[in-house]
Amino acid sequence: MKNARFEIERVLAHRPPFLFVDQIESCEPAIRATGISGRIREKLEVLGWRVPFVPSWYLLELMAQVGAVATLSNRNGCEKTLMTGIDHFHYVKLVDIEQVLRAEVEILSFRYGMGKRRGRVFSGDDLIAEATIRFAVITGDAC
């Protein structure tokens, strides 16, 4: 499934420059999703980042955003996810900010509005980072 930008923005509360996922390559609702992030230099420069490597917080947030798409894509549109904790994070390899990144995220557990996801970020076939991220689903005021 290839989602247009408006579909990603329907699911995520983030907007540029804080919207890091550009495209969803595949999504199995409530199971897993794969997303692409490009133009990273442009996104980071707007935020004041001047180092030639992708920062760990960007990788974590990219995994969280792709995971939110997997979690919320088949829901009513009034819910959002919040990152509530990081159980594990491993930055395997520095990556240049000119690279296109692919984040693969699977939902490990979800119960009573709380869950856990495992994410991995790749540049081509190279593993860049991996994390286990806890999250909560909340309902927005507009619903």
TrEMBL record:
Keywords: Lyase. It holds the Pfam family ApeP-like. The keyword DNA repair does not apply. The keyword Secreted does not apply. It comes from the Bacteria. Transmembrane segments: none annotated. One of its GO terms (molecular function) is lyase activity. Belongs to the thioester dehydratase family. FabZ subfamily. PANTHER family: 3-HYDROXYACYL-[ACYL-CARRIER-PROTEIN] DEHYDRATASE (PTHR30272). This is 3-hydroxyacyl-[acyl-carrier-protein] dehydratase FabZ. It comes from Collibacillus ludicampi.
